[in-house]
Automatic annotation (TrEMBL), chains A, B, C, D:
<dbReference type="InterPro" id="IPR048267">
    <property type="entry name" value="Arginosuc_syn_N"/>
</dbReference>
<dbReference type="InterPro" id="IPR048268">
    <property type="entry name" value="Arginosuc_syn_C"/>
</dbReference>
<dbReference type="InterPro" id="IPR014729">
    <property type="entry name" value="Rossmann-like_a/b/a_fold"/>
</dbReference>
<dbReference type="InterPro" id="IPR018223">
    <property type="entry name" value="Arginosuc_synth_CS"/>
</dbReference>
<dbReference type="Pfam" id="PF00764">
    <property type="entry name" value="Arginosuc_synth"/>
</dbReference>
<keyword id="KW-0436">Ligase</keyword>
<comment type="subunit">
    <text>Homotetramer.</text>
</comment>
<feature type="binding site">
    <location>
        <position position="119"/>
    </location>
    <ligand>
        <name>L-aspartate</name>
    </ligand>
</feature>
<dbReference type="GO" id="GO:0000053">
    <property type="term" value="P:argininosuccinate metabolic process"/>
</dbReference>
<dbReference type="GO" id="GO:0005737">
    <property type="term" value="C:cytoplasm"/>
</dbReference>
<comment type="pathway">
    <text>Amino-acid biosynthesis; L-arginine biosynthesis; L-arginine from L-ornithine and carbamoyl phosphate: step 2/3.</text>
</comment>
<feature type="binding site">
    <location>
        <position position="123"/>
    </location>
    <ligand>
        <name>L-citrulline</name>
    </ligand>
</feature>
<comment type="similarity">
    <text>Belongs to the argininosuccinate synthase family. Type 1 subfamily.</text>
</comment>
<feature type="binding site">
    <location>
        <position position="87"/>
    </location>
    <ligand>
        <name>L-citrulline</name>
    </ligand>
</feature>
<keyword id="KW-0067">ATP-binding</keyword>
<dbReference type="Pfam" id="PF20979">
    <property type="entry name" value="Arginosuc_syn_C"/>
</dbReference>
<feature type="binding site">
    <location>
        <position position="175"/>
    </location>
    <ligand>
        <name>L-citrulline</name>
    </ligand>
</feature>
Length: 398, 398, 398, 398
């Protein structure tokens, strides 16, 4: 029986060419797998058909948009996941769900190997291969771009020679990865980190500098899950989509940063993630209102570690699983409404209300009705500062 | 010899009245100490004169603006200090420098006691008293508002009865604390956390929603210290002042949040800190370019702990001192230029350049000149994921 | 209806006297509550009778030994809880379970107040009162020793005057708190921290210096729970009791340290915890075998925070609850056998075996059968060290 | 000019053979470098002569014992460095100092390459190569065992064929790495982790089970540095040597554990480190007495990270340098005497005294002279528990 290889397929030039090239190199049959994560562009049927036309024996397309939103974007939202305090893990979240579909397809179609189109200097190879290792440790991996120095130029020649049904003429200067959680853009002129992005690199967001009216939105959370927008019930996917549109329309969520890759180098990255940034901003403030202080302080450490793990390709790992239980527990009271103004590139919280609020007007107010017993404070202050005071006395003596 | 008490004096109604009241209650002589931290308002001579007129035996005013900028704001900038990822510690930074001046005045004037006007439900009482305990552990503390339930209403009556030279009629609805690093505003209607701030609460920042031209600025850092703006050499104080003006003019640095106080309650706080936010944003990105990954990751934990300590009143503490050495070491390569656009409430980095950059174009580029050896990646990925893979195999067997 | 006060009752002089004293001071009826946590000594019936004889209207005694072992000692074991890397939280674990019984008794008997005998300079007052605040926030607290300067001397006079059925003559030089998880001893001569403990302070442990034969034991864990000793099924309580006897018989578990109390002072403490130390030692090594590296590394931070929280009286707190979920998740594969030698004050692991082991002989061996692909290592090493190398190159240039 | 390669030379079979083999394979001249870290065994002159006899063009031997003790063991002591709470980093500390001598020799002798004898599944290859990358990023590395599958069997044949001056007949079943800080032993039968070590594997420590008299020692530290033993001034090296002898004579410092290697596998390791364990035990308790609580708590996290970094081969790294400054600062008051009893495998602290002590008898005592103001405690307890209490009230309402 002929060996089979499952290929992560995007429909683009590189992976279309890879179908034939890998088949030729290995003698194996290629099963192409494309996963819809809300990246837009061509419809999945067109992509499936192209895979077959390029020589795949099977082509699987999966609408994983809700799966991605519920199982990957939502945990990131609850972790307020911002790598280096900025980047909401757009690509890093998508790789594990693709890996899951690859592993399932490999099992279903009896494949021994999976293949991806990542280079050897990025994070995505790690996310693919470590994920495969965790979900299907017996599968082998082929990475033509990395392991066989396969380039775009070679791909064009290959496609032309074999007359593959791909338009090789339209060349974008941008290398783009996008899904419903956001969009990442790399391009040559941004590799000079003194250069500013130009308006042309953006697609999910309008220019924040253009004058327009502000947009006010109320987001309702139930136990850390966004469940309604302006009172209308939504799925997580819908919440992200609606805010991509509304926050994106106000220019919210553009990011431009130098980033530490797992493979040891720094790179310059430009992102857009209007829905993600709006949701995380709202969620953080609702946590400020509903999560107890010590829990909130420790959760920041958990969030950082969770984010680093996911960035570093360890979505499927024992530590990630254990951190998930912590985060899940922390969400049990994160319910209520956040009102935000979306305008000129910013999502600004202007109001919060919650039946689970730990904000106690009577304890906080300086007006009448104050129920805080100030006489307790003196003792608190004295003992709180006692270790420092004892240390200070010692320092004076020496 | 008559006992002396050093009073932290602002020139306002409450502390003006306190001069006479404490003197009467205790029989002690009052030494008023006012410290200029760039809060603006009345000049220091006027304040000094009022203290004397209200009955102080001595009135000390100190221009501590450079001391505050260099010794308190700068360490906060290098720590990227944002409490709860938001608040740049405006009041929390000012208390230790005031405490230092109080302790020095107490020593110079032979006082046995210091007095402050803080309430018993806020953080500032802790910062004052823990600071005094650390700098002058033998000093006693009197806090009339907290310990004797002294109120504004009582103060007005007292001032009128004694005909003190204070205007008791102009009553602001706002309780304000401000210095060069920022401004904090509390007011009754904001104690309902669903209410949005109104434009009237702001003073350091223009309305970000009003259309105006963007402002581009280049900030130069040397070892973590801002040393030039648009090529003009500046002191730290000048850097903050210039950016307060320019970033403030674009509406940058408004904050509205629910915050965890040390005394165990949540409160609603509105802040403005245009210079602080602009500087921290620039500094963070320059660190992204110049600080090695593992150091940057651990520094985030150090930053959080540093910020909590300072918020919690432990500026003068052994842990703070030790964290300072870590942060100082981390800054030795944080030199270079950051170009930012200030506009519509946002400070956005658009370019960075540094002779200390760890960003290596040749390692990062996808174009020609790439010096990254991709053949190394396969082994890295395999061993990086090995623990997860072994754990996954175990999970499959059980 | 007469007010009722629930008193944490030990049967000793202080709390026996407190029954009458509090009743007299407050006019309330006293409900005495004694909880058996395996502390040994008098039987619970005797204690109940004495409470009644001293004037209690009700006396409740509860055998909470299994509840304590399963609900308090076991989580501490799974957290490898050693405060300051030494102290297994003997008293800190017992307070929350006592508090739970006090709160239940208060509810059942309609009491408005609880009372405890702790001083104002120890940790236990915090554990009692914070626990009460969390379980029954409306209950008031009376602490006669702390709030009314009630002393042992006053207690003796009081008892003699009223002819209470307590032997006031036998005076131990030791202040002791003990339960099945261990024993804490304080005494005057140990307050000089240069003094060594004498053999007389110990009760749970034999002198480790005396020659005797070693004892070998095999402890079986199932998901982090000790379930068998030398193949005999045990409850958690039995596991602790058996190891108290066997490890205690070899002098295991003596501790002598200077400790940081929550109230801001350092104190000298001597403990014995043979069962706890033997179990934690075994559990740690089984985790070394069965828990993945990154999870193990982060768990150490979680363990430290968990331990500090419990030491600091925050057993009933949102952060503790969330850390518990993390720890519970981490235990799912901690199953297997640990063989230990108990001898001369040490519990030494000599063997481990587990069907959940992540130790893979074929990957680890240097003999034949080695399945580790050494060719992967070169790439790993290069990329692992790349950030340091880039930083080193920079340092050379400047 | 002929290329030169610097070889890390031990004098043993493998590296003796490597001299000729590398020369033959590469055509380069070999410079052998042997570093004395207190490992004992043959004298350095014998080793140098053998290198020449085996074909080295130069043979450098360095007495780095004090350098190792002062620059590597001492920082580990101040970090209380115990990987996985057990292993005092014996080999991990030695690699960086060897790397330093290799890099210096490479520079001095104009070599382009260094070579080491490590396998591809251990940690030491990482420590060597990452260290070389940080100290001399332009040097190349050859690892014959890893990269050319060079085995002991091949080495014996090679040595016999060329009649090299090495005794190939005596074959130890143990693979040993040792230096003054400790000794690591691996051997086939211990790869079965259920097997206990036998007495024969130990060399630095006597059998702790044999009866003998206890040994009492007083160690004096000055700012974290051991400066005297029983009143006699010592260097750090002497302190370690004396305690290796005295603590080793009592069987102190044996370790047997399953350990997480950086390369992703678990391995079984047996160590002896009597001096290291005795010194760390003493140092930890002196820190308990002299280091303020918050600093001590955070230092535990720093210690863990420092230890992981050094274990993971990142001695020469920016984060390690920054953590060093924190640790150095933390030691400024760690001065005083620790009295210990060494006996039956344990080093037990029995007394501590320090002019820098933060233990305050008057605050701690329950006898007369108590200066602790217990009236402060009530307020402290109330506010300390307030966040939990507010959260508990919320939980009751829902």
């Amino acid at each position: 029986m002929t060996e089979r290889i499952v290929l992560a397929y995007s429909g683009g030039l590189d992976t279309s060419v890879a179908i034939g090239w890998i088949a030729e190199e290995t003698g194996a049959e290629i099963v192409a797998v494309a996963v819809d994560l809300g990246q837009g562009g061509e419809d999945m049927d067109t992509i499936r058909k192209r895979a077959i036309d390029c020589g795949a024996v099977e082509a699987v397309v999966a609408d994983a948009r809700d799966e991605f939103a519920d199982g990957y974007c939502l945990p990131a939202l609850q972790a307020n996941a911002l790598y280096m305090d900025r980047y909401p893990l757009v690509s890093a979240l998508s790789r594990p769900v693709i890996v899951k579909h690859l592993a399932e397809a490999a099992k279903y179609h009896g494949a021994s190997t999976v293949s991806h189109g990542c280079t050897g200097k990025g994070n995505d190879q790690v996310r693919f291969e470590v994920g495969i290792g965790a979900l299907a440790p017996d599968l082998k991996v082929i990475a033509p771009v990395r392991d066989y120095a396969w380039t775009r130029e070679k791909a064009i020649v290959w496609a032309e020679e074999r007359n593959l049904p791909i338009d090789v003429t339209k060349k974008s200067p941008y290398s783009i990865d996008q899904n419903v959680w956001g969009r990442a853009v790399e391009t040559g002129f941004l590799e000079d980190i003194w250069n500013a992005p130009i308006e042309d690199v953006y697609s999910y967001t309008a220019n924040p500098a253009e004058p327009r009216d502000a947009d006010e939105v109320v987001i309702t959370f139930d136990k850390g899950v966004p469940v309604a927008i302006d009172g209308e019930t939504v799925t997580v996917l819908q919440a992200i989509q609606i805010l991509n549109s509304r926050a994106g329309g106000q220019g919210v969520g553009r990011l431009d940063m130098v980033e530490d890759r797992l493979v040891g180098i720094k790179s310059r990255e430009v992102y857009e993630a209007p829905g993600a940034i709006a949701l995380i901003t709202a969620h953080q403030e609702l946590e400020n209102v509903t999560v107890e202080r010590d829990l909130a302080r420790f959760k920041r450490q958990v969030e950082q570690r969770w984010t680093e793990l996911v960035y570093d390709g360890l979505w499927f790992s024992p530590l990630k699983d254990a951190l998930d239980t912590f985060i899940a527990k922390s969400q049990e009271h994160v319910s209520g409404d956040i009102r935000m103004t979306l305008h000129a590139g910013k999502a600004v919280v202007t109001g919060r209300r919650s039946e689970q609020s730990l904000y106690d007007f009577n304890l906080a107010t300086y007006d009448e009705g104050d129920s805080f017993d100030q006489s307790l404070a003196k003792g608190f202050v004295q003992l709180w500062g006692l270790p420092s005071k004892i240390a200070a006395k010692r320092a004076q003596q020496h």
